[in-house]
């Protein structure tokens, strides 16, 4: 009888090629064995000596049981804490069809519009929703959280304000975590944060901008049109952080004159998740749209003049403008923005208003009941939050509330804050009354009078667009969500061979726990003992990540890779400050670096010095040495990526670290390529001081169509004191709104580590390297592979050079990328880090069959190019120039010099399961010239349908 090794079985989930296929792939690469291949690929002096000792890998069932036991250690109470986080109900139809649906959560960021029309439409709905709620003209497609969105608003205010003052005013009613992140962001840029009462302390002439909270953290609702007018008089910018549910009842910020609105869409159906992920929003006036950070979806046309969506104004972003970019935001919160937009589609304007009214009614009932009990309740006008004066009884009442199953908020030493939400029911109100010493308060069915401030009641309409008035029968809703996801190409259909953005399996067993209420419904500010499960999970995952990276501590606070870069560079800056080295501000960055690197360095007040690359694509060590010497006195850091963004393990990485340290600088190693290192080499051993890890790349958190992500940082011991601090304190040092970033998706990465075990993780790395080398070997016959290591091996990705074909056949990288869509593939990373090339990363998850299908498609494309080169096919009218082909192309006359068959069914495409892009090639320039960033009017839909 054969005994199967459960360890091997667990690995079969994540590792695509079978043992036999691994043998065939090795042969194609000309390598003796996996170990021999790795020896030829990684320089010997960086190899890790001890294997990862994570104990026995868990089977799927054991892993789920472990997650269950951990979840059960979180005690789930009703949290009426507020402070930017609210109970909400994700409609089950959205939970199953979007949140738990791989067609949505395994998609990549929508950089290739032809295969992203579904999520682009959902994001356009999101932008329309935000514009309508805030009363502003243009919104982006989400930011990371409310606190960082507020910081982005401050940065934007600085860019667009006529005032050249260096102070920013912050309403004392702002959320503490927002104030903390604003302080952190302002410090390295030399801006002063002034916290105060907008009606007493604001001196408009002394600031470049101000932020107001609406409603305030303790419930007060102020008409800030006066302060806003005063700011405008002084050439300063006004931003308002507003609750989007309150905005269904209250006058929107735009009508009060605000230039920018920010906030969190969390309470639009996205669970609190112990702090995240949620989508933040940001909107502004038309005049400032080009200064708006983050991704913006816009409307354009395709090659046939039909409506098509795509990302607009890309030229403002880091990959183009580097340190002059509008911000470092790359991964944002697409999946959560999609959920929030669907929540609005699901409820419609009247449904949203009904929810807001019910919330308000419950708050009024509570205020009246507590007043009857003899307490002084503030403020006189509120939406969902009240503050109760409890004198010396604060501790007793808070404790009694917990005993009654409810968390309330401690305010100062003698008050208690209560925030009700969509999930508040009469029994919860009863529990609160009991905590305050009341009993048997009769439930009053009568509708109490509203307590919204007279002059601030909303009169303007919102969500008038037909999409928010569709027939909301569940069959219709389900089909709408299905239709949109069918337009997109995600990992559940085909390989997404994106260089740098590791798109690997997001295993179902890893995804299950994030739906559990014990993880998803925990408020981030609950007492420690109610989040014991989270603390255990975060502790063990941190330990494992330390073992994997060779660092001494991990901070889970950064909620994207770019945020991790920012947090890491900030730690370096603070380290230098602590040693009296304030003058160390120069950051060396190779020309090949990801655009977020220079953008993050700039946010830390550093000046970027670019280091060149040598002929082989490696960091030019001599140039690096020269520049380190030149800036020796002022050297703060270098930022390197390893293996390099060129997909090569550079042999002189230790030397680069040593040079940096010799000149007093610190080494930031961008860990986005950790999928090539885990179990084989550790950044901390190579000589780096700090790195971010993209858990949404290497550690299986799905990309969500462009977020969520997690970018925790690992640091060496000397940087531990400078890690991000707790945002709740309101003090400088926090980088995002919640202590552990997007904590609720950490079970995914933890399950992955537990199910793989140390051996499995290292094996995954080896196979990832094998798969890339296999692709390089197969495609190398037809295309130049741009870079390789000293022994001819690539790391976990490879760059295919298409530049020669521009001359020989008039074919561009875009033509090849779009032609791959006809074969049913998501195109690889285009023109980065080298213009005119494709960067391909297969990952360990893809089977040999899928990799071969991709290679077949690429090789067939080479033959199509050859036909053009040899004059057999027209240079302007050929399958590449006309790609991608849609069903529309099939009907009517066909007057092309190639057959329908050749156009629509190239090598690699499936007959039965053929993916049809919903639009032809999208015209990007047209969309930027005619900028439309919200749902087009219904008439234009009719026109398009004709
Ligand atoms: C993906 C990536 C980043 C940025 O990560 P985000 O999560 O998108 O902010 C930084 N550097 C490299 C090399 C990357 O591939």
From TrEMBL:
Catalysed transformations (reactions): N(6)-[(R)-lipoyl]-L-lysyl-[glycine-cleavage complex H protein] + glycine + H(+) = N(6)-[(R)-S(8)-aminomethyldihydrolipoyl]-L-lysyl-[glycine-cleavage complex H protein] + CO2
Any Gene Ontology CC annotation: glycine cleavage complex
Cofactor(s) for this UniProt protein: pyridoxal 5'-phosphate
CDD domains: GDC-P
Chain positions found as N6-(pyridoxal phosphate)lysine: 697
Oxidoreductase among keywords: yes
UniProt entry keywords in alphabetical sequence: Oxidoreductase, Pyridoxal phosphate
One term of GO molecular function: pyridoxal phosphate binding
Pfam families tied to this protein: GcvP2_C (PF21478), GDC-P (PF02347)
Quaternary state and interactors: The glycine cleavage system is composed of four proteins: P, T, L and H.
Family as reported in the entry's similarity comment: Belongs to the GcvP family.
The protein's name: Glycine dehydrogenase (decarboxylating)
The species this protein was found in: Methylobacterium radiodurans
């Amino acid at each position: 009888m054969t005994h199967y090794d459960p360890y091997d079985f667990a690995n079969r989930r994540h590792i695509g090629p079978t043992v036999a296929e691994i043998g065939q792939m090795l042969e194609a690469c000309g390598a003796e064995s996996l170990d021999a291949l790795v020896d030829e690929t990684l320089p010997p002096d960086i190899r890790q000596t001890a294997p990862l000792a994570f104990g026995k890998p868990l089977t799927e069932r054991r892993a789920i049981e472990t997650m269950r036991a951990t979840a059960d250690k979180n005690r789930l109470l009703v949290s009426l804490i507020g402070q930017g986080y609210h109970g909400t109900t994700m409609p089950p139809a959205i939970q199953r069809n979007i949140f738990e649906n791989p067609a949505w959560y395994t998609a990549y960021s929508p950089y290739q519009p032809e295969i992203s029309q579904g999520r682009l439409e959902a994001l356009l709905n999101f932008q329309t929703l935000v514009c309508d709620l805030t009363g502003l003209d243009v919104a982006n497609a989400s930011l990371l959280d409310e606190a960082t969105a507020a910081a982005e608003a401050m940065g934007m205010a600085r860019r667009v304000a006529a005032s050249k003052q260096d102070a920013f005013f912050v309403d004392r009613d702002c959320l503490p975590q927002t104030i903390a992140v604003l302080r952190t962001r302002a410090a390295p840029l030399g801006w002063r944060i002034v916290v105060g009462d907008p009606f007493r302390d604001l001196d408009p002439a002394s600031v470049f901008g101000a932020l107001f909270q609406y409603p305030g953290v303790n419930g007060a609702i102020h008409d800030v049109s006066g302060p806003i007018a005063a700011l405008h008089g002084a050439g300063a910018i006004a931003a308002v952080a507003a609750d989007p549910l309150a905005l269904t009842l209250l006058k929107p910020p735009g009508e009060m004159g605000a230039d920018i609105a920010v906030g969190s869409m969390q309470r639009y159906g996205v669970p609190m998740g112990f702090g995240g992920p949620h989508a933040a929003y940001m909107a502004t006036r038309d005049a400032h749209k080009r200064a708006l950070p983050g991704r913006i979806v816009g409307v354009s046309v395709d090659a046939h003049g039909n409506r098509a969506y795509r990302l607009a104004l890309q030229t403002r972003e880091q990959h183009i403008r580097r340190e002059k970019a509008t911000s470092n935001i790359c991964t944002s919160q697409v999946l959560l923005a999609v959920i929030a937009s669907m929540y609005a589609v699901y409820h419609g304007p009247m449904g949203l208003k009904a929810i807001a009214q019910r919330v308000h009614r419950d708050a009024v009932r509570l205020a009246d009941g507590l007043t009857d009990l003899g307490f002084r309740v503030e403020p006189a006008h509120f939406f969902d939050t009240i503050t109760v004066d409890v004198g010396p009884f604060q501790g007793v009442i808070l404790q009694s509330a917990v005993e009654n199953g409810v968390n309330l908020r401690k305010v100062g030493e003698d008050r208690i804050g209560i925030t009700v939400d969509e999930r508040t029911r009469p029994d919860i109100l009863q529990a609160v009354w009991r905590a305050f010493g009341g009993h048997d308060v009769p439930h009053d069915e009568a509708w109490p009078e509203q307590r919204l401030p007279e002059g601030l009641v909303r009169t303007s309409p919102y969500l008038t667009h037909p999409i928010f008035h569709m027939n909301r029968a569940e069959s219709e809703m389900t089909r709408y969500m299905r239709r949109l996801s069918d337009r997109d190409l995600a990992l559940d259909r085909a390989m997404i061979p994106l260089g740098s953005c590791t798109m690997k399996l997001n295993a179902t067993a890893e995804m299950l726990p994030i739906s559990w209420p014990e993880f998803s419904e925990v408020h981030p500010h609950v007492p420690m003992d109610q989040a014991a499960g989270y603390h255990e999970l975060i502790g063990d995952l941190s330990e494992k990540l330390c073992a994997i990276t060779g660092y001494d501590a991990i901070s889970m606070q950064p909620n994207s890779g770019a945020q991790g870069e920012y947090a890491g560079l900030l730690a370096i800056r603070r380290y230098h400050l602590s040693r009296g080295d304030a003058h160390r501000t120069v950051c060396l960055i190779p020309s090949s670096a990801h655009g977020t690197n220079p953008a993050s360095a700039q946010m830390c007040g550093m000046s970027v010095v670019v280091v060149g690359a040598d002929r082989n694509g490696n960091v030019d060590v001599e140039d690096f040495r020269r520049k380190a010497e030149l800036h020796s006195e002022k050297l703060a850091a270098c930022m390197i990526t390893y293996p390099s963004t060129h997909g090569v393990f550079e042999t002189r990485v230790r030397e680069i670290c040593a040079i940096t340290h010799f000149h007093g600088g610190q080494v930031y190693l961008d860990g986005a390529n950790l999928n090539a290192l885990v179990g084989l080499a550790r950044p901390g051993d190579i000589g780096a001081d700090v790195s971010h890890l993209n858990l949404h790349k290497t550690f299986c958190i799905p990309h969500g169509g462009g977020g969520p992500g997690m970018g925790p940082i690992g640091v060496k011991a000397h940087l531990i004191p400078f890690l991000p601090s707790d945002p709740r304190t309101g003090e400088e040092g926090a980088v995002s709104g919640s202590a552990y970033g997007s904590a609720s998706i950490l079970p995914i990465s933890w399950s992955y580590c537990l199910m793989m075990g140390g051996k499995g993780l290292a094996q995954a790395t080896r196979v990832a390297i094998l798969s890339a080398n296999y692709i390089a070997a197969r495609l190398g016959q037809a295309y130049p592979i741009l870079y390789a290591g000293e022994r001819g091996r690539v790391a976990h990705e490879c760059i295919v050079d298409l530049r020669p074909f521009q001359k020989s056949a008039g074919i561009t990288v875009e033509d090849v990328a779009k032609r791959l869509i006809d074969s049913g593939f998501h195109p690889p990373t285009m023109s980065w880090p080298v213009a005119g090339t494709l960067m391909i990363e297969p990952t360990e998850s893809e089977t040999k069959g899928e990799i071969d299908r991709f290679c077949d498609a690429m090789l067939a494309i080479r033959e199509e190019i050859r036909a053009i080169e040899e004059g057999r096919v027209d240079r302007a009218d050929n399958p590449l120039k006309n790609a991608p082909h849609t069903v529309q192309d099939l009907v009517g006359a066909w007057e092309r010099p190639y057959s329908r068959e050749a156009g629509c069914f190239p090598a690699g495409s499936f007959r039965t399961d053929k993916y049809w892009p919903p639009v032809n090639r999208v015209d990007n320039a047209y969309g930027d010239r005619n900028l439309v960033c919200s749902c087009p009017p219904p008439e234009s839909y009719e026109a398009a349908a004709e």
